[in-house]
Amino acid sequence: MTIKYQIAFVGNKHLFESNILDSVHAHLNELGVEKDYLVIIDENNFATEYKRNAPIFCLYFGDATGSFRNLDLLDQLLADASLILPVVDDIKRFIPSTPAQLHKINGYELSSALGVEPLVSLILEGLGLLRISRRLFISYKRDESSTVAIQLYEGLEKNGFDVFIDTHSVRPTEPFQDELWHRLADTDIVVLLNTPGFLSSNWTREELAKANAMQIGVLQLLWPTHKMEVTAAISIPFELQPTDFGNDLYSDSKSYLTDHAIKRIVEQTEYLRARSLAARQDNLITEFMKAAKKVGKTADLHPQKYIQTKKKNGDDVIIIPTVGVPQAFNYNKSDEIVETFKMAKKPSVSLLYDHINIRDNWLKHLDWLDKHLPVQAIKIINAEAWLQNI
To answer: Model's pTM, two decimal places?
Structure first.
């Protein structure tokens, strides 16, 4: 069985096509997906390479003059219910820049290289290689960077992220610390505002320690004149300059970032997110494969990062490594994944996850789902015992 991912470039040529492909290949490498499992489709090979039943994400590049190409290919992709993203230079001129068939689909403005990484994240999510939930955690010291923290909260939410910030994201009556660690366990990356006094707070030190323990990627925003003194397993330093701040002022909690600085931070956030999720997924896979070897079970890792093993009666089991807190979407998506295996007998499915720092009420909910759904959830800590019992 060979499942290939498809990215289709149709419509007019775009200045940043090569940038998009370079970024896609870089992230596929991080995700452990070999180049041979990606097919690039365009007007030259559509007739021979396009497979309607394989995962596909199509970019239709519009034209400001209304000169639209590949409308026949576009109609076929629409008929096949393919994921299509209209891409334009100016979102304010979306209607005149795209064919009528796409007017009901939300478009994407790609007017500079800063828009490439967010676009690539959309592609990887559409292909099922990145989880669709886009969760971030902002770690900061209130008396040094509260204005920037709120500014980033608003800017990242506008770019489609579900952002956790302590002053805005914990509802009344919720246990503050339990909810904070739960959200950290379910985040894609941490955006850390590395101000001179960041490590003087017990809370911020503990947030960083837990992020490290869970191998969550950290984007460190380094304040001007401040040296990097915080370490993380997966970390990218982002050195802020005085000119990144309004009026070049950066020394108190009311300092704020320019719009251009926010855009650059969003780009780096998208880049690190893919790396962080890939590393956490790989960690789950590695631990499971170790457990299988220890108990003498054969476990095969597929290129799409799903694991296949067998029960004692010979029936197949598919294990899906799941980063963060398993959600209803993960259970639903598992059916689609199983369909790609084309086995004579439908295999059973289990979601593999790390329960550390997930709240007790959510763990009880997952236990309840295990009793009522055909899909099971396995804590990685219990993988060895589970393998022995199936």
So the answer is: 0.76
